[in-house]
Design brief:
The chain contains 3 helices and no strands. By secondary structure, it is mainly α.
Length: about 60
Amino acid sequence: MADLDTGEPRFIGAPEHLDWARTAGHIRRIVDEAFLAYAHRDRVELPQREMSESPDSVV
């Protein structure tokens, strides 16, 4: 995926995966899921940061 921060994400696939990606709406689904994951990244990363900064952390 590229350009997730622009609001216009693009799928960049390896040549050997393009036939599969172009079928059954795979690219649209991949782009949509990647964009959602990117949009919610702070919610996922925040607990990990807090845990690693904890004085009792072993990470």
